[in-house]
Amino acid sequence: MDGPDAGPELAARRGPIGFAHRGAPAWYQRENTLPAFARALASGATGLESDAWLAADGVPVLLHDRAYGPPRLRRDVTALPADALPGWLPTLSAFYQALGTDFEFSLDVKTPAGRAADAAVAAVLAVARAAGADAPRRLWLCGPLGSLRVWRELDPDVRLVNSTSMREVRAAGGIGRYAHELRAAGVAALNLRSREWVAPTAPIAQVLHDHGLLAFGWDAQRPTTLARLLGYGLDAVYSDHVDHLVTATAKHTVGR
């Protein structure tokens, strides 16, 4: 049985989403900080990207790696309560309080090895719901397909993104069969690394669209890479360079 219909997202979109990866750290700002996120939005990014861990008291915090600090003084964010973390490291709640919800937000939910991510996802969703009705609908949770099937049951509105590789797609029987599995799981988009979107695989975006799914590409750092991916018809791209990101997505938004 098919999951939630992603077709209206395709019909209603005004242009590709430009996700500022970790707040676009190519600007030499500390990544995953409120100033970096705010500057990316002020510069025209239509989306932000980050990673969430649960602090020891169950509070979602935004950081790419599990630990922070210099090599010999590394601290584990999962071993400390949120109020013991440095001020530059934002909680998800502070993120929404400072920035609002008028943008798309792509989030990788991470957990220590051997622990299920479901509790962390539930905590993230609780914060998003508290931020307002728009927050869950503009939240894109990224993960493997097996996890996404479970997360779909936790919230009907959150968008689910399958971050995977072409090897996994081929192993599942090809893009047509894989797209059907994504739809059945209630997934909204397939996310591949930019280098996997090459000429022989370019029609994959059209196959996904035919199934009511979206096509995302991450690690798009050069203007030529962004132009190539958007030329293939991708619906979202991720970049550290917000200036390149905004310029490229604007070109593909005109006339839509």
TrEMBL record:
Q: Which residues form a coiled coil?
A: none
> What does the record list as GO biological process?
lipid metabolic process
Family matches, as Gene3D superfamilies = Phosphatidylinositol (PI) phosphodiesterase (3.20.20.190)
Which Gene Ontology MF annotations are present? phosphoric diester hydrolase activity
Q: Where is the GP-PDE domain?
A: 16-249
| Cited InterPro entries | GP_PDE_dom, PLC-like_Pdiesterase_TIM-brl
Which Pfam families does this UniProt record tie to the protein? GDPD (PF03009)
Q: Which SUPFAM superfamilies match?
A: PLC-like phosphodiesterases
Q: What is the superkingdom listed in this entry's lineage?
A: Bacteria
Report what the protein is called: Glycerophosphodiester phosphodiesterase
- Organism annotation: Pseudofrankia asymbiotica
